Please model this.
Amino acid sequence: MTKKRALISVSDKNGVGEFAKELAGLGFEIISTGGTKKMLQELGIPVLGVSDVTGFPEILEGRVKTLNPFIHGGLLAKHDDEGHQKQLEEHSIEPIQLVCVNLYPFQQTIEKPDVTVADAIENIDIGGPTMLRASAKNHQYVTVVVDPVDYATILDELKADGETTLETRRKLAAKVFRHTAAYDALIAEYMTDLAGEENPEKLTVTYELKQTLRYGENPHQQAAFYRKPLGSAFSIAYAEQLHGKELSYNNINDADAALQIVKEFAEPAAVAVKHMNPCGVGTGNTIFEAFEKAFAADPVSIFGGIIALNREVDAVTAGKLHEIFLEIIIAPSFTNEAVEILTAKKNLRLLTIPFDQEQKPEAKMVTIEGGLLVQDRDSYTLEDAEITIPTKRQPTPEEWEALKLGWKVVKHVKSNAIVVSDKDMTLGIGAGQMNRVGSAEIALKQAGAKAEGAALASDAFFPMNDTVEAAAKAGITAIIQPGGSIKDADSIKKADEYGIAMVFTGVRHFKH
Model:
């Protein structure tokens, strides 16, 4: 049997002992380093140290050990190139046919709350990625494995044919380059943050596959769901599903929209979402009261919707939820009784999310054909705003509460956006129209008689006074909007004409 060499050096030692044992039985000479070498020796597997191959000791606290021509010559030589083979012979370098390497645990290190910069830097692997990239580049001749899940495939092919197929080697090489690219992306993100760079000249991001999806927005579109390593636990990407069939592409989008809205509220709140727009938002002294108001806000659109609640779901609330056809219910937790009630519906998804987790600031990314748009998330609140009241009348305390609720919700409605609300719930929502008065008419029509004495919130300024006119005729008594139109004076005059209190926030909340 022709002797072959396998270089094994892993931080993830899951299954590597059995893998090395099988390789040794197939005639491979094993080369290894550090902790991996020690573990294999303890298992009784013959191991050759890297220093035995290079004739040079590990130096600089192990920072330099595999960066050597006796290693990389063996990895990069073309096996069918006479010139390469002649040079290997001249320098007494033996080829390495298989490489099993994974990297210093950089992600696990920076996940630690007390991690120091020195610890993070020390866990940036140099030799590992170099060996992986060299082996993957030379996959015509070298089998390179970075993931323990692939050990079985490699062994099966070696046992059957004495070598792996080019197809397998190419797939493994592609996985290696994805692995090293993701590893470098995390390091780049960490170092960019450390250096305080806000708009780096290169943006490299990485995401991990969470699940493949049955389809995308429509059945003819393929889709998958990825999540950000070290991403916010307070998110749909890290939710725990207690019950129901797997989430779809549209479910995930809607669930995220519902979660982002309910995050706006400290008091018990319930949010119903359809097609990424809220159809009903309610608050109350209890989560049951909050959901009753969210339901009453639009009992038609809530059918088949997504519900997010910011308090534990108890039995009485679960009973009310159970009466309606819903796709998903999101909450911090569910009582045992609530779970028993709600799991009677086979397909209803129940998701728990840790509402007590700190919200991590994350950029919002939107792909366009040929590019990527990146922006900060819209975290602006009324507490951040420079409030002015240009009208003769000031809002009453109750109107202020209604204005605050409307302003929290309108930020999450597709532009052009109008929300009509009282202090506890939305009464009408107009979304996504090509002109603002069109959205206002939809919201006011939905509110109906309840618009009398209610508040109206707009995500952007009024380009003319027609929205104020429509609001006044419906009975609206208070309006909140950014201001900033060249025709603000017309809207102010119209509000004063009808005795409406109008608040300017100085900031808009466009959502496209």
Remarks:
- The longest helix spans residues 166-195.
- The chain has a mean pLDDT of 92.
- The two ends are 66 Å apart (CA to CA).
- The chain has 18 helices and 20 strands.
